[in-house]
Amino acid sequence: MNRIVLLLLIPWAIASCAADAKVDANKELAYCDAQIRRALPYMTDPAKGARNIAADASDPQWRCSDINDWTCGFWPGVLWYDYEFTHDEEIRRRAEQFSEAIIPVLDQKSHSHDLGFMFFCSLGNGYRLTGNPEYKKSLLRAADSLALLFNPVVGTINSWPGMCDKKGWPHNTIIDNMMNLELLFWASKNGGSGKLYDIAKRHAEVTMKNQFRDDYSTCHVVVYDTISGKRLAQVTHQGYADDSMWSRGQAWAIYGFTMAFRETGEKAFLDTACKAADRMLQGIPEDYVPYWDYSAPDIPDAPRDASAAAIAASGLIELSQKVSDPETSGCYLDAARKMLASLSSEKYQSRDRNVAFLLHSTGHYPEGGEVDASIVYADYYYIEALLRLKALQESRPETLK
Ligand code: GLY
Prior knowledge:
- The protein is mostly helical.
- It contains 14 helices and eight strands.
- The strands form three sheets. The protein has a three-stranded antiparallel β-sheet with strand order 2-1-8. The protein has a three-stranded antiparallel β-sheet with strand order 5-6-7, with no helix packed on it.
- The protein is globular, with a radius of gyration of 20 Å.
- The structure holds glycine.
- Glycine binds near residues 176, 238, 248 and 363.
């Protein structure tokens, strides 16, 4: 899409912000708590956290994965958020069990950027809520381990070392990796090396330069040359095509660059988050839950990705509080509320169909994995977004009239 078409579309996106969507955060958080209590009796092994429930599953309980899976931090993270809402000591005890079970991962060589998801969502929330010094130690170890994947010639973390040979991608960085910089920023402020801050900032700068197309859609993977540090290619792994916009990737960009702005104060990161958000809101379906990829050939019959909406909603709530223009702020907040209103409806909430919070996420469409399923990271960012909205409702009710 060229810039002129883009400029014509942006006013449309802003205009579409006019309508209002009401979400009762307390009511939806109580729903999340009730679902967790239906799931917990079946979650007997702390080293196995929730991962997914297929759309056609006869069993309404979670299928679990082990602590080496990239998603292992989300289930304990969900429990921590529920503890934050309920202050229930039994939920805290279970959050501790599932979080602590992940720690042995740190005894292995770092094998992907996912250490951020794994540790910051679990122990990071645990430390924030309890101040447990053991959690802090593990978080600092996780940050140091993640930093080993940074290549100073390229200026980014090698997201998937396993793909270097497998795919012939000598150094690859995926847009998802933006999320894991939060662990590095946190560590640099909490007793870790100041170099962790430099690594995270540099990664965000190089990603900002190479991961976006002219219209501010993101590509999933950028492949770099390890000798020259130059970009070799923009390709996809989980999206529809190398030049398409994979919805969850765009949501990671919104959230990740908003967080990078929060941690550094770099205005360019804020601008990038806004442009990524504007691009995602162009052509989003009426219910504000994107199809899994904006170029999926079978739209409007293509599967949705509720996880992309949940991640984007959480990121947009924060973004709405960072931009200074009240109209733009209102637009982002309204978009987030529309996403959360849809996700909280009969169509997207699992309710008595299974124990997850949400239906209709898409994990890895090209491989046929987790298509139209309940997936734990959708639930994680949904409950996080609800807590962010609740905080806003309580501290700044005037923004939510
Ligand atoms: N970070 C992997 C994914 O979003 O599917």
